[in-house]
Design brief:
With 361 residues, the protein is α/β, with parallel strands linked by helices. Helix content is 19%, strand content 30%. The longest helix has 12 residues. The mean pLDDT is 93. The protein binds guanosine-5'-triphosphate.
């Protein structure tokens, strides 16, 4: 099986996304908008680029959101099927729940990582080593908040340490990137009747049983979008060219900005690239959008308002003279006239900010 080119993937999309609250109170993490497209569309684009077009989504929480945003994903050139857990089964149990639909060698993705990693190179490594389970490892500056993976001199998996305490010695800066290549037969080892963690239970058991399992380090863009700050920064990375645009924003490209159909832009409104304007966006006179702004469908930016380094979901109303910087604004939020919303602020969908209020951290 090891030499077979994978055509299938399982994406774990059933977590509650607690770190991304309050945004995930309104929408499941796998489909929060990234440059106005559902997040998983970027993973599907990467998989398709590497010939993987049969994808199973392992869901449990807010599955209706996920279906509404992605459907069968045929418009993205892949076939998407859903398996839904009655009770959350954890990262291992979620993969186990998809076992009947997969065969051969299968990619498994955490549904919250943005990466342009070369999946074909990962497959070659997997085949050359005769690996049955390969983990993509990425280097990060502060590994403590991630799952650390130690390898032996041959790149075989040696030890896992989830989020080590501050007092523990850190022996590696390579962390589990949440992208795996697995022999599907191994997936059936996972118990199907209780929650199982792929990181804490499945991989350590493979090491203990001496199943050929490897870590593969590769330079690639990688970011876990699971916190509000990382979610915003991932979009800044895409806009500012630090991450490869696997999928273009909807609409026409115009001098570094994208503008979808409908809406209206006053002749003296300024759009400073890079920026993404969704469908039916209205920009009133003298407002400035960008640099690095994402404006959701149906949003309105009032006269003289400024939006910079910020991500706005759908139907946000920004009052006259308001200033929004480096923040994330949920859907249907109303920002009063001359209000100021500063760096690091995240507003829950439906929030109403009074005129002249200042929100800062
Ligand atoms: P936090 O609550 O913020 O930690 O987020 P999370 O619930 O998404 O958990 P975590 O980031 O550890 O999950 C990693 C990936 O596994 C995400 O893509 C989750 O959607 C997914 N996941 C987590 N738990 C489950 C589960 O019980 N079932 C399924 N199918 N997927 C899960």
């Amino acid at each position: 099986m090891a030499g077979e080119r994978p055509a299938q993937a399982v994406i774990l999309a059933g977590g509650q996304g607690t770190r991304l609250r309050p945004l995930t109170l309104a929408r499941a993490k796998p489909v929060v908008p990234l440059l106005n497209r559902p997040f998983l569309a970027f993973q599907l684009a990467l998989l398709r680029e590497h010939g993987v077009t049969d994808v199973i989504l392992a869901c449990s929480y807010r599955v209706d959101d996920v279906r509404a945003a992605l459907g069968d994903a045929s418009q993205l050139g892949v076939r998407l099927r859903y398996v839904v857990e009655k009770e959350p089964l954890g990262t291992g149990g979620g993969v186990r729940n998809a076992a009947d639909l997969v065969a051969g060698t299968v990619f498994v993705f955490n549904g919250d990582v943005l990466t342009d990693v070369d999946l074909s190179a990962m497959q070659r490594f997997h085949a050359e080593r005769g690996s049955r389970a390969t983990i993509f490892l990425t280097r990060v500056t502060d590994p403590r908040q991630y799952g650390l993976v130690e390898l032996d001199a041959d790149s075989r998996l040696a030890r896992f340490r989830e989020k080590p305490a501050a007092t523990e010695t850190i022996t590696t800066d390579t962390v589990n990137a949440g992208v795996y290549l697995l022999d599907a037969a191994l997936i059936r080892r996972i118990p199907g009747d209780r929650p199982v963690s792929i990181e804490r239970e499945f991989f350590p058991a493979l090491i203990a049983d001496r199943v050929p399992s490897y870590g593969w380090c590769a330079p690639a863009y990688w970011r876990d979008i699971g916190s509000p700050a990382a979610y915003r920064e991932a979009q800044m990375d895409l806009l500012e060219g630090r991450a490869r645009m696997l999928l273009s924003p909807a609409g026409a490209w115009d001098g570094g900005s994208w503008r979808a159909a409908g809406g209206s832009v006053a002749s003296d409104a300024r759009v400073v690239p890079p920026a993404v304007l969704g469908a039916r966006v209205t920009l009133h006179p003298r407002c400035q959008v960008g640099p690095a702004a994402v404006i959701g469908d149906g949003s309105t930016i009032g006269p003289d308002a400024r939006v910079e380094g910020a991500v706005l979901w759908e139907r946000v109303e920004v009052g006259a003279g308001a200033v929004l910087r480096e923040c994330v604004i949920g859907a249907d939020v109303k920002i009063g006239t001359h209000a100021r919303v500063g760096p690091g602020i995240v507003l829950e969908s439906g929030a109403v900010i009074p005129e002249r209020a200042t929100l800062a951290r």
